[in-house]
Amino acid sequence: MLKKIVSISGKPGLYQVISQGKNMLIVESLTDKKRLPAHASEKVVALGDIAMFTQGEDKPLAEILEAMKQQENGAQASIDPKADAETLRAYFAGLVPDFDRDRVYPTDIKKLIQWYNCLIACGITDFSTKEEEEETAEAPQA
């Protein structure tokens, strides 16, 4: 599911990919359901492609969102995304104890919390990527 949910640089919120054109994507806002084009010149990143820095291997966003869902019992985040930097880092350390404190900034944690709250508010609670990997593996090779 996270492969079809994207963030567009410079635009607030999250979007679901509806269709793909020659030099653009047609996306729909998760919050107000308005459709708009995302041109090739805009930085569009699928949530399924994002990972957070740790001391070891980078941790996929899907795993972090799943950990948040478990900690919050499927509800909105208990922390305000506008909290101070130390509060945000303490909260994130509860989710990912070995996160890289030099490369994961408070703004990254804020964005993560906002995305999580947006996904939960829109009823998207399945953060696993296993189904997408299976679909890709089962697709016939040409």
Can you give keywords for this protein?
2 domains, alpha+beta, about 140 residues, disordered C terminus, two-stranded antiparallel ribbon, SH3 type barrels, Arc Repressor Mutant, subunit A, five-stranded antiparallel beta sheet
Q: How is this structure best described in words?
A:
This protein is an alpha+beta fold and 142 residues long. The protein folds into two domains: 5-47, SH3 type barrels (Roll); 50-130, Arc Repressor Mutant, subunit A, CATH 1.10.10.1650. It contains four helices and seven strands. The chain has helices at residues 61-71, 85-95, 106-121, 130-138, and strands at residues 5-8, 15-20, 24-29, 35-39, 44-46, 51-52, 59-60. A five-stranded antiparallel beta sheet has the order 4-3-2-1-5, with no helix packed on it. Strand 1 (5-8) and strand 2 form a beta hairpin. The longest helix is centred in the C-terminal third of the chain and has 16 residues, at 106-121. It is globular, with a radius of gyration of 16 Å. The protein starts with a strand and ends with a helix. The model is unreliable at 131-142 (pLDDT under 50).
Briefly, what is this?
The chain has helices spanning 61-71, 85-95, 106-121, 130-138; strands at 5-8, 15-20, 24-29, 35-39, 44-46, 51-52, 59-60.
Low-pLDDT windows of residues: 131-142
**Termini separation (Å)?**
24 Å
- Main sheet summary: 5 strands, antiparallel
**What spatial order of strands do you see in the largest sheet?**
4-3-2-1-5
Architecture (CATH level 2) name of the largest domain = Orthogonal Bundle
Proportion of helical residues: 25-40%
- CATH level 1 class label of the largest domain: Mainly Alpha
Beta-strand proportion = 15-25%
Number of domains: 2
Structural class: alpha+beta
Query: Could you tell me the mean pLDDT?
Result: 88
Q: Given the C-alpha coordinates, what overall shape results?
A: globular
Tell how many strands the DSSP assignment holds.
Answer: 7
Helix count from the secondary structure assignment: 4
- What value does the Rg take, in angstroms? 16 Å
Q: According to CATH, what is the topology of the largest domain?
A: Arc Repressor Mutant, subunit A
Give the helices and strands as they follow along the chain: EEEEEEEHHHH
